[in-house]
Specification:
Blueprint lengths: L1 E2 L13 E2 L2 E6 L5 E7 L4 E2 L5 E9 L26 E8 L12 E9 L1 E6 L4 E5 L3 E5 L3 E4 L6 E9 L3
Antiparallel strand pairs: 1-2, 3-4, 5-6, 6-7, 7-13, 8-11, 8-13, 9-10, 9-12
Length: about 160
């Protein structure tokens, strides 16, 4: 992962998450090949200081691994499609707007860079930094970046029973 220069501009700060995505598959003879080598463009921001980049999604378990459909091109829902998954990267700028929310999924999160506080619905907080991992099981939560650097987290969301 590389980062362009970061120029904080308050609530209108520019998100600069830049990731190379390499996807493998099979050719007509069943041999392993690289099918995608690009920079994902399926991004969304649902509040100031937040940007989410979709790397891949699936719509079933076990996942379909044949074909050449780009899993990042699908319309993303939260939580994932029933029995599906979402792999995304999220960048949280310092002072990101608060958003208490819940996804009915099991989420595996790895803090890639920066630091962030996870706040649960009863006020309990846990400080996470680069290299820390979180397994979140459908809890109400919020992400708070009180630092002065962006925080990037990789998330894998798997459909879960409510």
């Amino acid at each position: 992962m590389t980062r362009a220069s970061f120029q904080p501009q308050g609530k209108d700060a520019i998100m600069v998450l830049n990731v190379r995505r390499v996807v493998t598959g099979h050719d007509a003879e069943g041999r392993a090949v690289v099918t995608i080598d690009d920079h994902p463009t399926n991004r969304l921001s649902n509040r100031p200081g937040h940007e989410s980049m979709v790397v891949w999604t699936t719509s079933e378990t076990p996942a379909e691994i044949s074909g050449d459909q780009d899993g990042a091109g699908w319309q993303v829902t939260t939580p994932p499609i029933a029995q599906g998954s979402i792999f995304r990267l999220i960048e949280y700028l310092p002072g990101v707007q608060s958003r208490m929310h819940r996804t009915e999924s099991i989420d595996y999160a790895i803090v890639i860079s920066g630091e962030i506080d996870l706040r649960l619905d009863q006020g309990q907080e846990v400080h996470l930094k680069a290299g820390d991992v979180l397994v979140q099981r459908a809890t109400f939560h919020d992400w708070i970046n009180r630092g002065d650097e962006p925080c990037v987290i990789a998330f894998v969301l798997l459909d879960a029973k409510p």
